[in-house]
Design brief:
The complex is a heterodimer of chains A (286) and B (450).
Chain A (H helix, E strand, L loop, with lengths): L1 E5 L4 H17 L2 E8 L14 H18 L7 E7 L3 H12 L3 E5 L13 H6 L7 E4 L13 E6 L6 H14 L3 E8 H26 L6 E8 L2 H6 L7 E5 L14 H9 L4 E3 L10
Chain B lengths: L1 H5 L5 H4 L1 H8 L3 H25 L6 H8 L2 H33 L5 H18 L4 H28 L20 H15 L17 H27 L13 H45 L4 H6 L10 H11 L7 H30 L6 H23 L3 H21 L29 E3 L4
Helix pairs in contact in B: 3-9, 4-9, 4-10, 4-14, 4-15, 5-6, 5-14, 6-7, 6-11, 6-13, 6-14, 6-16, 7-11, 7-13, 8-10, 8-11, 9-14, 11-13, 14-15, 14-16
The chains are: A alpha/beta (286), B mainly alpha (450).
């Protein structure tokens, strides 16, 4: 099993490596660090003197050397510089070529807007990647957590997130971490009157999802409510070592990732590693 | 072939029109012809050298290989001056446009904002700017066509000479050949860029394509310049009535096409200028980065910094931006002359290398054809570019000489009094196509399981 880590020599890149290490340990996976450089072939009148591209690649290799030092001895890792116009597209291709299970990236490079700002290429990935994308929250690099302890899977109010559940169950199995199914009910979406109905609907959805799972799965189910989706998800109670799994929007093309608006809101507030899974294999028959 | 054209900015013919018209006493087209002739000989020499050194494309390499690395260094050093000034010249042109629209506003604000934007974009990333240039050249050519038509209409209504079918723009009483050559040195500036095509020599399918393409690009560019200059000069035999003579583009457009045409014309010129600013800023900062990277010491270490997220040579970009800020006080005439200083040295040396390589090293000087191509043509080219060079403004020669002496001192220093071989190189561009994996891709494994 392989995990591709999208690396930059920034704090966010170190966060990505840290989460990659954590996931690799839990899953017994190997890491493949990838740094994507764009073709940099600026040419202008008269200025023919430029070996910047090679120099940049050399710098990239040096940076990857540093990154490899962040990977502890017990985790197998490889590293390479790849060239591509679009960072997100190139990382996706790398994941497919290597047969990787997931891509791991840093949530924020520490920009001005802090955890609110996703890097632009992370945002691109979350709208296009062909494999699950794990996003490390800021500061993962300082965390002492060695392994994933619990997998939480957010189930939408519509049934049918087969791929998400499948991934969540297999992640839970592979890691030996218990699975927690969560349905989020937000007051601002349903209003005070609709809240009870929404809550009931959530319970029903969870039960149907749970019943579809194999009996021996260690699964709990929770309905979380709050004034907003953000409040609901924060009110759940999170521990170090948690991992949240979210599905793609219904709008996602088959087998491609396309993050929905709710998931995007969660991603921005929660200081927990989050995995977003691609859409279903085929469009729902409905 | 389009590539060589793509690196020229055709509209500069109207930018420098005022300077040249004043200098030559109203025979701008003649100045273009003189410059074009010199350039054609130089282009022929470039063409020959690209076949000798297909992997490289600059006067610096030719001089290093054919004459001596130390000479190559000095040629590269003089070119560095014009590279450094290229981003600035665009800011100067922009400032003059700005002044033509807002004569009362303090123009240093424009320079500051413009340089800040270009520098910021360069810090961030500059992907894909080089592709835009080609489109902009087409757009500019179309607008020059419109200018010609509008000028024709104005002429038939009695403006200037009243007709374009007169030899007045080429010769009339009071024209002094020395002045024309001085004018030609200024218009050389418009042609700079044709040599960029040599960078593609490695990728050309047949070796003879590049020399032909260089000459053809030059001739087509020359034809566009000549046409524009001819009509402009027919309509405006003198600069009477012009408020700004340092850069006449906005006023020329206004006088033949009215306010709206002026806005359109200046917009096109601005777009070209902006694209040129971005790409020249980018390539100059990258060149500085590469030069610094090969050196040791504190200044080089500072300059060879790459921003980990934007992957741009941040400090070099900022330095080039700081140099560009000087645009608030230099005139277009002075900056273009300084650029020509470095460019004409390079052109002269290219002609010289043809002579040295073919006639001296290879001793190919027996048949009349060999004498013609290996001695006569390069000597003519060399003499013409040298004459142009000697006719540069005194200021340009003075400051250029100071720059050259600094280079000489540096050369003596890095070679420990010319005793050690030169290690400092002004590197060549390597073109890499999009999507091709670079050679440096390394894949290393470590850890427990293997």
């Amino acid at each position: 099993m392989k995990l591709v880590v999208g690396y930059l020599a920034t704090a966010g890149g170190a966060d990505a490596v840290a989460l990659g290490v954590r996931l690799a340990r839990t899953l017994g996976a190997e890491l493949e660090l990838r740094m994507v450089l764009s073709p940099d072939d600026v040419t202008t009148p008269r200025v023919t003197a430029d070996k910047f591209h090679d120099a940049l690649a050399g710098q990239g290799v040096a940076w990857l050397d540093d990154a490899m030092r962040l990977v502890p001895e017990d985790v197998t890792a490889g590293a390479a510089v790849v060239i591509g116009e679009s960072v997100a597209e190139t990382l996706g291709e790398q994941a497919l070529t290597l047969g990787a299970e997931a891509l791991v990236v840093g949530g924020s490079g520490g920009g001005l807007a802090g955890s609110l700002a996703l890097g632009s290429f992370v945002d691109d990935l979350l709208h296009s990647a062909p494999v699950p994308v794990a996003v490390a929250p800021r500061g993962t690099r300082h965390s002492e957590v060695q392994r994933i302890q619990r997998v939480t899977c957010a189930v939408g109010d519509r049934p049918g997130a087969a791929r998400l559940l499948e991934t969540a169950v297999s992640a839970s199995r592979a890691t030996g971490a218990p699975l927690r199914l969560v349905s989020l009910v937000a007051l601002d979406e349903h209003g005070a009157n609709g809240l009870d109905a929404a809550r009931e609907h959530a319970h029903a959805t969870l039960e149907s999802v749970k019943s579809a799972l194999p009996d021996n799965a260690a699964v709990t189910a929770v309905v979380a409510d709050g004034d907003t989706v953000e409040a609901a998800v924060e009110g759940l109670g999170w521990e170090p070592g948690d991992l949240l799994m979210l599905g793609s929007s219904r709008l996602a093309p088959p087998r491609r990732l396309f993050i929905g608006s709710t998931a995007a809101r969660i991603l921005r507030v929660l200081q927990v590693p989050i995995v977003v899974t691609p859409g279903e294999d085929d469009s729902p028959a409905t | 072939m389009g590539l060589g054209l793509g690196y020229m900015t055709p509209m500069t013919v109207f930018d420098t029109f005022g300077i040249v018209s004043e200098e030559t006493n109203g025979v701008v087209p003649l100045a273009y012809i003189v410059a074009l002739v010199a350039m054609v000989f130089t282009a022929l020499s470039y063409g020959r050298m690209t076949r000798v050194f297909p992997s490289a494309g600059s006067a610096f390499t030719y001089a290093s290989e054919v004459i001596h690395p130390n000479v190559g260094f000095l040629v590269g050093w003089s070119s560095l001056l014009d590279y450094l000034l290229l981003p600035m010249v665009n800011a100067v042109i922009g400032r003059i446009y700005f002044e033509s629209f807002f004569p009362d506003a303090p123009s240093w604000i424009f320079v500051l904002v413009y340089v800040a934007i270009v520098t910021a974009l360069n810090c961030w990333s500059i992907k894909g700017t080089s592709n835009i240039n080609g489109v902009l050249v087409v757009f500019q050519t179309v607008l020059i066509g419109a200018f010609v038509v509008l000028t024709y209409l104005s002429l038939s209504r009695g403006l200037g000479q009243g007709t374009a079918l007169t030899l007045e723009p080429l010769y009339h009483a009071g024209v002094d050949m020395g002045a024309v050559i001085a004018g030609a040195t200024v218009v050389c500036f418009s042609f700079i860029g044709f040599d960029a095509i040599t960078m593609y020599s490695e990728e050309a399918k047949t070796p003879s394509t590049v020399p032909k393409a260089i000459v053809l690009a030059l001739l087509i560019g020359g034809a566009i310049f000549l046409l524009g200059a001819w009509f402009a000069q027919s309509a405006f035999p003198t600069l009477d009535g012009f408020e700004v003579t340092d850069d006449t583009l906005p006023e020329l457009a206004l006088k033949v096409g009215g306010e709206f045409f002026k806005i359109l014309f200046v917009s096109a010129a601005l777009a070209a200028m902006f694209a040129s600013s971005l790409s020249s800023h980018a390539s100059v900062s990258r060149m500085i980065y590469v030069m610094a990277r090969n050196q040791t010491g504190r200044i080089p270490r500072f300059l060879s910094y790459i921003h980990p997220r934007f992957l741009t040579p941040l400090h070099a970009v900022l330095i080039v931006g700081a140099v560009s800020l000087l645009a608030f006080r230099f005139t277009l005439e002075f900056v273009s002359a300084m650029i020509n200083f470095g460019a004409l040295i390079a052109f002269t040396v290219v002609n010289l290398t043809v002579l040295l390589y073919f006639a001296v090293h290879l001793k190919k000087r027996n048949t009349p054809v060999e004498i013609l191509t290996n001695i006569v043509l390069p000597v003519i080219g060399m003499s013409l570019t040298a004459v142009l060079w000697l006719n540069l403004h005194f200021d340009a020669l003075l400051y250029g000489a100071i720059w050259f002496v600094i280079g000489l001192v540096l050369l003596v220093y890095v070679t420990r009094g010319l005793r050690k071989p030169l290690t400092m190189r002004i590197e060549e561009e390597t073109l890499s196509e999009e999507g091709t994996p670079i050679e440096h891709v390394e894949h290393r494994k470590r850890g427990g399981h293997e």
